[in-house]
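From the pipeline queue, job 12 of 40. The input is one protein chain; the requested action is below.

Action: predict structure.
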Amino acid sequence: MKLMYALWGSRLADALRSDDLHRELAALGATELQVNIDDAEVAAAQLRLTTYEQPVGAVVSVWTPQAASAVTDVLSSVAERVAGWRVQESAPLPPPASADGVRTDALANIALLRIPAGMDRREWLRRWQDDHTSVAIETQATFGYVQNTVIESLTESAPVDALVEELFPMAAMTDPHAFYGSDGDDGELQRRVMRMMESIGSFGADTDVDVIPTSRYVYNLAPRRR
C-alpha cells in the first residue's frame, strides 16, 4: 500500500530525513520512504503553483502493509499541517534507482491534480492516463514519470484526485529548453509548449493545480537480513 502526504511546517527537511523518524515508521511496518522537499537545492525553480494559502513544503510517500492511521499520526508529529491519501501507483517512465538516502540528481516536480467540476471521473482518468501520458513524456525532458491516483483521503483536507511525480534535469529549473528537451530550438520549444498546454487543458490540469519543486530522497526501511 502506498500512502502520500503533503506537509507544511518549518524544519521539515531535518525532521523528515532524521533516523528517529525512519525508525518510527519502520517499527510500524513501513518498508520504503520517499521524501520530496522544497529546499535550497530547488530554490531557483521558476515553475511554482499553489492553491493553498501557504505552499506545500514537502511531499512524503510511505509504502506499508499496515493501517494508515499510525503513519498519519507519526508524520503529523513533525509537521504543522498534514494532508494524506492512499494512492494507486503507475509508472509509465520509472525513475532510475537511487542510493539509499542520497539526493536524486534531479528537479523532482510534484503536481496535485483535481477533477474539474462537471467532468466524469472515468472520462477524466481516460483523458489523463490514456491520452496525456505519451504527450507528457514526448514533450518534456523527463527521465522519471509516476502517476498516483487517489483511492481515498486519509485526512480532512481540500480534495486532491491525483499526484504526479516528474524528474527533470536540474537545468530545467530556469531553462525552458532544458525543461522541454528542445535542444535550444525556439521553434521546437514553442511546438512542445503548445502541445503540452492543449493536452493538460483537456483534463483540467491547467487550472486548480499545485506544482511543488523538490529534492528527492529514497530510504529503504525494510529490516536487513543478517
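Job complete. DSSP finds six helices and eight strands in the chain.
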